[in-house]
Amino acid sequence: EDLAKGSKTPAFELAEGYDGVRKGYSFTGWQDDKGNNWPYDSDKGYAPVTGFLGRAISSMEDMKSESAPKWDLYEMSPLLDSSDITVKEWNKIATVIYENYSKYDGFVVLHGTDTMSYTASALSFMLEGLDKPVVFTGAQIPLCELRSDGRDNLINSIIIAGEGMVREVCIYFAGKLIRANRSTKVSSEDL
């Protein structure tokens, strides 16, 4: 029985062949090699900080609106450079979605842009039969910067996930919603 009919088990199965898929972890995302995923500016350049994203989202006026989707934050530990993400981390992300599938209308995964398309594509195959949105997003300019594209990417991703109209893994970036397993990063500088 699927979730739409009241079952407490997910309507999809995790694809076979992935070791460690059944471990439980919390997740928000990782930064990329430029520190673009929700960092603060330190004397050593951009660095991720546990709890930064929750404070940043909570301070956004748009997210305080009555019409904003409700959200919970799961944060992976440790926060990693996206170039260090492997199949092990893909499994962790899939596990969080699997274990929380019945609690939410959709999921947003924050990820560094360097390897986002690889992770999103892998998850599109791992989450077979998915009937809810899983929206990957990130930023070219860090969220802590005035001109950051991260704010709009994040807010729009949360809205897309909250509406539940998309029923697959996708990437929202720079005003475009892209099917995850059809995505490619084409520039590390353009917005």
State the helix count. Answer: 4
List how many beta strands DSSP finds. Answer: 8
Overall residue-averaged pLDDT value? 75
- Biggest sheet layout: 4 strands, mixed
Strand order of the largest sheet: 4-6-7-8
Spans where pLDDT lies below 50 across 5 or more residues: 1-38
In percent, how helical is the residue content?
10-25%
Descriptive notes:
24% of the residues lie in helices and 15% in strands. The chain is an alpha/beta fold and 191 residues long. Strands 4-6-7-8 form a four-stranded mixed beta sheet, sandwiched between helices. Strand 6, helix 4 (150-163) and strand 7 (169-173) form a beta-alpha-beta unit. The chain starts with 12 loop residues before the first strand and ends in a 12-residue tail after the last strand.
Give a quick rundown of the structure.
By secondary structure, this protein is an alpha/beta fold.
Q: What labels would you give this structure?
A:
single chain, 191 residues, alpha/beta, 4-stranded mixed β-sheet, two-stranded antiparallel sheet, 4 helices, 8 strands, 15% strand, globular, disordered N terminus
List the helices and strands and how they pair.
Elements: E1 13-14, E2 39-42, E3 45-48, H1 52-59, H2 87-99, E4 107-110, H3 116-126, E5 127-128, E6 134-137, H4 150-163, E7 169-173, E8 176-179
Parallel strand pairs: 4-6, 6-7
Antiparallel strand pairs: 1-5, 2-3, 7-8
Helix pairs in contact: 2-3
